[in-house]
Specification:
The complex is a heterodimer of chains A (about 270) and B (about 575).
Chain A (H helix, E strand, L loop, with lengths): L1 E7 L7 E2 L5 H4 L4 H5 L2 E4 L2 E4 L4 E5 L8 E6 L5 E2 L9 E5 L14 E4 L15 E4 L22 E4 L15 E4 L12 E7 L3 E3 L7 E6 L3 E3 L5 E10 L2 E10 L7 E2 L2 E2 L2 E6 L1
Chain B lengths: L3 E4 L2 E4 L4 E5 L2 E4 L2 E3 L8 E4 L4 E4 L1 E6 L4 H9 L26 H10 L2 E9 L4 H9 L5 E6 L5 H8 L3 H15 L5 E3 L3 H5 L19 H15 L5 E4 L9 H9 L16 E3 L7 E2 L9 E2 L1 H10 L3 E4 L7 E6 L2 H11 L4 E5 L3 E9 L5 H15 L7 E2 L13 H9 L1 H11 L3 H7 L11 H15 L17 E4 L11 H8 L3 E4 L2 E5 L2 E2 L7 E7 L4 H13 L12 H4 L3 E7 L3
Parallel strand pairs in B: 1-6, 2-7, 8-9, 9-10, 11-12, 12-13, 13-16, 16-20, 25-26
Antiparallel strand pairs in B: 1-4, 2-3, 4-5, 7-21, 14-15, 17-19, 18-19, 21-22, 22-23, 23-24
Classes of the chains: A mainly beta (about 270), B alpha/beta (about 575).
The structure holds zinc ion.
């Protein structure tokens, strides 16, 4: 597998919008060609070479291209946007929109990521060995099509509005999560291993949310059903099942009304 | 001003009976002149290309508060389709609800010179005009809505045509409006009481007036004033299965009315987006729904005083927006997406809902078929105009695709066989599969230029290349002799004009937009006899009900309409 190593050479004064940092774009390109790819800083067009030392070369296809970013890119947006295959490893923290609209492949961030990661993603895997920001796996502003497939796994904490309008896929947050979890959710799974604050599953139609820790304030639209023993993400335990959001319109399947499911671990 | 001579193109101008002949077109001082009357012209070589007068859009929603709410509440409509500015062009964006700049650029690229904003809520006329002002290149006008206006309802309950006309004249002047639009007559107001009007004889609560009285009264008042455009109606029960009966009832109200105007218009009623009004059956299911386009257009073919536009569904994700508040509420319950509605005090309502016309559903395909049938059953193409009710049935940018479907039976077959999932049931429930008519370029020029210009009362300016008309000419990269092999060439050519000359200025040159033109706003100033009663009613309504004063209502021309083109009408007989 071909490897491209990007080493940051300067921190953008504003932010670098670098939607070209994907295995799809890098595939078939030499280091010089990659350095010549454009990005935006404010209203100016720049090149990746202005901000990174580029070593190695892309593989023949996205699938056999790995990109390693060695350093802090917490002012670089859109890393891995729309990628379909291959791999990106960020040895540092990244800014917003990591893996936005991602279709396949894998992104590993050994640091923190900011908001809107995995926005509207349909497949692939995002691993964050740090904390994630707001709107993880959510829908783009105004859209009703959030994360639809793939996996996002965050070791640390996540911000607010995770999984808004989520329709499929799985989000696993190892730590705590801020307000508004799975708002308008219509499918998929969110697992929170720490605590949640409030507004968990508001306007949720379908899908599943697991919370291992506490929820500060429960949504009034959820009703307790029963207790169940489950194995979730390799851990087993006893959960209380709530269904909701009763304030929302719900579809029927084989004559049965489908609700969103919220499991709270004892 | 530069003189232009467009040489060697295939010219289509139904007004002059020119059907693909190689005729030179000359422009001097912004007007069409005889080819011999230009001196030292800039010559445009249109060899192998199609030349027509610039197109005229009779009905689109491209400016005003509901368009802007659409933009505001659909940021995703701009996702990944913004385009940075280049040359003279500024940044553009948006698909179904484009920015004002993209609207102008789209119209220019499609070879349009004039567009009528189809629904202006009078109270928000200032906003509408601000957007029109900010939309460069094309000339525009706007139709204020009257069909649920309290003044109109009160006057027409008593059949007071003269008072209605006086009020219309006042409102056109106040709002810098162009003509009389009527949306879901009585229904939008009824909705304030949780009701709707489902037949032309349903009574509007409190006002005690019926859609029939509103439509006939507005036609009468329109002709009393002698306005350039006729009464422009979006009938009751839009989009409802079985609505073709109410459509026929509405159209028949025009019987006996004759056009009275000095603008060469020969219809008294324009039924907009007819596609949405030609449904039979009782539901959207393939077992029940059926097209009734033939029944409706058979009637229209049998009379001579009605025109319509198509409102073709383009099978896209779009944004619906109409002054038909109850319809949008109904739609929001069908698709459960986001919804905005508003009540415009004393005047109208409005609603907005995103909508996906999914080619994998029966009903979207059937709607697509009905829209095209509306264009294919017409005997006189001078009375049927091509629209998508943009953005309701499809985005503005899809006009060229609609032309392709109308002009190529092969393109329609391809849709029925390959794109639409329920092609067979659509053939069964609609007429589309039985029609082999292909609209010719000559007919296309009627349906996009000569016809709409005539019905808008603007045939003395637009729609033809006759000497003396505006120097508005479009040149398309389409060779009518050799490009007939592939329908895709139609779609490409009519979306990528090689040249557009507008008012004698070259706007599009070799496919690139190079000039922002001299955009004008058309409005109609109708003079009527003093009418103290209507004047008193107006000041009374402002005092008692409006949340604004009259001073904050008037569209001040110098600010909102900096470059007006005023059409004077005298009804003081
Ligand atoms: Zn309309």
């Amino acid at each position: 597998m071909a490897k491209v190593i990007l080493t940051p050479t300067q921190t953008p004064t504003l932010f670098l919008e670098a939607e070209n940092i994907t295995p799809d774009v890098f595939a078939g390109k030499t280091a010089a060609e990659i350095a010549a790819l454009h990005g935006f800083v404010g209203k100016t067009t720049v090149t990746l070479g202005d901000y990174f030392k580029v070593e190695g070369a892309g593989g023949q296809t996205a699938a056999d291209t790995t990109i390693v970013i060695n350093g802090d890119v917490s002012r670089v947006k859109y890393i891995g946007m729309k990628m379909t295959a291959g791999e990106i490893v960020v040895n540092g923290s990244a800014d917003m929109y990591v893996g936005g609209w991602m279709i396949g492949g894998k992104i590993t961030v050994n640091g923190n990521i900011d908001a809107f990661a995995g926005l509207g993603m349909t497949g692939g895997e995002i691993i964050v060995n740090g904390n994630a920001g707001n709107y993880l796996g959510a829908a783009y502003r105004g859209d009703w099509r959030g994360m639809q497939g793939g996996v996002i796994r965050v070791s640390g904490n996540a911000g607010s509005d995770v999984g808004t309008f989520m329709r499929g896929g799985t989000i696993i947050v190892g730590g705590n999560i801020d307000v508004h979890v799975g708002t308008h959710m219509e499918g998929g799974t969110i697992i929170v291993k720490g605590n949640a604050k409030s507004r968990v599953g508001g306007q949720m139609v379908k899908g599943t949310i697991y919370v291992y820790g506490d929820i500060d304030v429960m949504m009034p639209g959820f009703q307790y059903r029963n207790d169940v023993d489950l194995e979730v993400d390799g851990q087993s335990g006893k959960f209380a099942l709530y269904e909701g959001d009763m304030g929302e319109r719900h579809p029927k399947q084989k004559g049965e009304v489908i609700y969103g499911q919220l499991y709270m671990k004892y | 001003m530069t003189d232009y001579l467009i040489k060697n193109g295939f010219v289509f101008d139904p007004v002059q009976g020119i059907n693909g002949d190689k005729v030179d077109v000359a422009i001097k001082d912004g007007k069409i002149v005889d080819a011999g009357d230009v001196t030292n012209p800039t010559v445009i070589d249109a060899t192998g290309m199609t030349v027509m007068a610039a197109a005229v859009d009779i009905h689109a929603h491209v400016a005003g508060p509901k368009v802007n709410v659409g933009r505001n509440f659909r940021p995703e409509d701009k996702l990944f389709n913004g385009k940075a500015g280049s040359g003279i062009k500024r940044m553009e964006g948006g698909f179904s609800v484009p920015t004002v700049l993209r609207t102008a650029y789209l119209y220019a690229r499609m070879g349009f010179g004039f567009s009528m904003e189809a629904a202006m809520p009078p109270l928000y006329a200032r906003h509408t005009h601000e957007e029109i002002r900010d939309t460069p290149i094309i000339d525009q006008g706007a139709l204020p809505v009257f069909g649920n206006n309290w003044f109109v309802l009160e006057y027409l309950k008593e059949n007071e045509i003269e008072n209605t006309a006086a009020y219309i004249a006042w409102l056109l002047n106040q709002t810098k409006g162009f003509g009389v639009k009527c949306v879901n007559p009585g229904g939008t107001e009824s909705w304030g009481w949780g009701m709707n009007c489902e037949t032309v004889d349903d009574v509007v609560p409190y006002f005690d007036v019926t859609p029939r009285q509103i439509v006939s009264g507005l036609i009468a008042a329109n002709e009393y004033l002698g306005l350039p455009h006729c009464m422009h109606v979006h009938g009751n029960s839009l989009g409802e299965p079985g609505n073709y009966e109410i459509t026929l009832d509405t159209l028949k109200i025009a019987e006996g009315y004759k056009p009275q105007n000095e603008f060469g218009r020969d219809v008294v009623l324009h039924n907009t987006h007819l596609q949405f009004h030609c449904y039979g059956g009782e539901s959207y299911a393939s077992k029940s729904f059926e097209s009734k386009s033939k029944e409706v257009i058979d009637y229209i073919n049998s009379v001579d005083n009605i025109s319509y536009d198509l409102g073709v569904v383009t099978l896209d994700e779009t944004t619906t927006m109409t002054a038909d508040g109850p319809f949008e509420h109904h739609l929001s319950h069908m698709n459960n997406l986001k919804w905005a509605n508003t009540d415009v005090e004393l005047e109208t309502g409005s609603g907005i809902v995103p909508f996906i016309y999914n080619p994998k559903t029966f009903i979207a395909g059937a709607q697509w078929a009905v829209g095209l049938e509306c264009g294919l059953f017409i005997k006189d193409p001078m009375r049927a105009y091509i629209t998508t009710d943009a953005p309701n049935a499809g985005p503005l940018s899809r006009y060229p695709r609609v032309y392709k479907w109308l002009m190529s039976a092969q393109a329609r077959e391809d849709m029925l066989n390959n794109t639409l999932k329920y092609g067979d049931s659509i053939r069964e429930r609609c007429y589309i599969g039985e029609i082999d008519r292909e609209i010719s370029l000559y007919e296309l020029a009627m349906m996009t230029r000569a016809g709409p210009a005539k019905t808008l009362g603007l045939s003395h300016m637009f729609g033809s290349l006759k000497v003396g008309l505006e120097g508005d000419v479009a040149v398309y990269p389409y060779n009518p002799e050799t490009d007939t092999d592939d329908p895709e060439k139609i779609e490409y050519a009519f979306g990528n004009a090689a040249y557009l000359i507008k008012g004698g200025r070259m706007i599009v040159k070799e496919g690139e937009i190079v000039d922002m033109g001299n955009k004008r706003t058309f409005w109609v100033n109708a003079k009527v006899n003093d009418n103290p009663m209507v004047e008193r009613d107006i000041s009374e309504k402002f005092r008692r009900y409006y949340t604004v004063t009259q001073n904050n209502y008037t569209v001040e021309g110098h600010h909102f309409v900096p470059n007006p083109y005023v059409i004077e009408v005298d009804a003081t007989k």
